[in-house]
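Sat 14:20. Reprocessing the chain from the morning session after the first attempt stalled halfway. Input below, unchanged.
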Amino acid sequence: MDEALLHRLIEVANADGPVAGQISIAAEETEWRFTPEKPWTTGNYRLLVGTSLEDLAGNRIGRTFDVDTFDKVSERLTRKSVSLPFRVTRQ
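Finished this time. Tokens:
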């Protein structure tokens, strides 16, 4: 993954909007880490990933991998991002 795209196209949000924090990239740009400015609170969050983020092979979230480029592709993607929900709980 391209580090500049990882910083620009992935964010963490809750019901109030984006969560402030620091992003770090590790393991030769294969690992994305997010550390919030304030400690996590119990609640629902979303990891928002822009669909233009792609790996070195051109694979993108929201688009079929390994598409035969000789066959006509009729699927059209209209989403700008993919939302992956998660919940933080205290133990």
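The beta strands are 10-14, 17-18, 21-26, 31-36, 43-50, 81-88.
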